[in-house]
Amino acid sequence: MFKSGTIQTPIILWFSFFSGTALAHHSLLTYDTGEIVEFEGEVTDVFWRNPHVRLVVRAVDEAGNERVWTAEGSPVNAMERAGIHQALVAVGDHVRLAGHPSGFSENEVRLVLLVQDDGQAYAIDADSVAAFGLLADAPQVIRTGDAAAIAADGLDVDGIFRVWTNRDRHWMRDSREWWARSHPLTEAAQARLDVWDQETDDPAKQCIPAGMPEAMLMPFPIEFVDRGDIIVLNIEEWDNSRTIHLNADPDADVPPSRLGYSVGRWEDDTLIVETSRIDYPYFNDQGIPQSEDLEIVERFTLSENGAKLDWTATVTDPVTFTEPIIMPEFHWDWIPGQEIKPYNCVVAE
Q: Is the domain of 172 the same as that of 316?
């Protein structure tokens, strides 16, 4: 446990859209959140780009042996929204780190806490810091990056056509069970999943943009834009942009694409979107395959006061699943002033 005598007032980063479990879902199941590893040493490399910030630290263990650790942090966009920029740490700095160990790489952790040489502490994962008592003796906590959602009553807003922010603090925690569970796969789909290798096959590690429905399973802002007969849905992660056709023929001769062909209709304050003709090999980032027979029905429902947008969806794919799949519910808040940031993914060397 880091001692309060050597730590200044810590800054707890309550990320405004997806809890202290700040990693994107690409890494959700690869770290042991029931364990914590602590070490200190010299920063030898800083990778400050999406999909995740990475620090490389040269440390010396209790036996006097040198170990080189990789600490994977949050996406750059998440860090910047919380007011944390690359100037936080540089090559040559002496730091102390705590993190959850990787299930794949011996010297890799998911970053939970960073303490600078002057004693300033940054809790990247506030929930884990609290659970393991890493700053239990700290006298004060400062909240940063925590904007408030407000009601849209009486304000000049147009339905869902704004930027929406996923700021549910427990989004990842509550969705973890869904990602980890065994889905009802056909024998053919199970055979494809059995040869999946998370380290080499994950498209996110190569900065390959996600297709539907994986493109919607993310803790980043989205934006609806009214273009008359079409609605454009911009998604910050991967710089994705979906086109939802209103008053369109669902049976139109449209070639398959990564994000599919989406047809929408309104039912009161709910936008219902049916998407098919998806040309993307994976249902999720854990290697479950999918076929071009996959169809997804989404419902975007606006709250009465216009401050919240709820998402539910059902997937059918008889080639992959033996029954329909109910997707986890997502919730977005309206926080005025939020914008879609460029994602700019870069493959780490």
A: yes
Q: What is the pLDDT of residues 173-214, one digit of tens each?
A: 556 566 656 789 999 999 999 999 988 898 988 899 999 999
DSSP code string of 199-210: HHH-GGGGTPPP
**Distance, CA of 293 to CA of 189 (rounded, Å):** 13
Is residue 240 situated within a structural domain?
yes
Q: Output the CA torsion sign for 8, 114, 99, 108.
A: negative
Same domain, 225 and 132: no
Same domain (yes/no): 242, 280? yes
User: What pTM value is reported for the model?
Assistant: 0.80
- Give the whole-number percent of the chain exceeding pLDDT 90: 50
CATH number at residue 88: 2.40.50.140
**Please, what is the average pLDDT of the chain?**
84
The structural domain count of the chain equals 2
123 and 184 both lie in a single domain: no
Query: What CATH number is given to the structural domain containing 179?
Result: 2.40.128
* Domain span holding position 8: 4-144
pLDDT at position 62 is: 81
The pair of three-digit structure tokens given for residue 273, joined into one six-digit string: 């979107």
pLDDT digits 0-9 by tens, 40-77: 999 999 999 888 889 999 998 888 889 999 999 888 88
β-pairing, 295-302 vs 94-101, is unpaired
For residues 170 and 259, membership in a common domain is answered with yes
pLDDT at site 21: 38
- pLDDT tens figures, 47-56: 998 888 899 9
Contact (Cβ atoms closer than 8 angstroms) between residue 329 and residue 312: yes
Taking alpha carbons only, the member of 157, 183, 190 closest to residue 323 is 183
Residue of 179, 166, 299 whose CA lies nearest to 236 = 166
> Is residue 48 left, alpha or beta, with left meaning phi > 0 and alpha meaning psi from -120 to 50?
beta
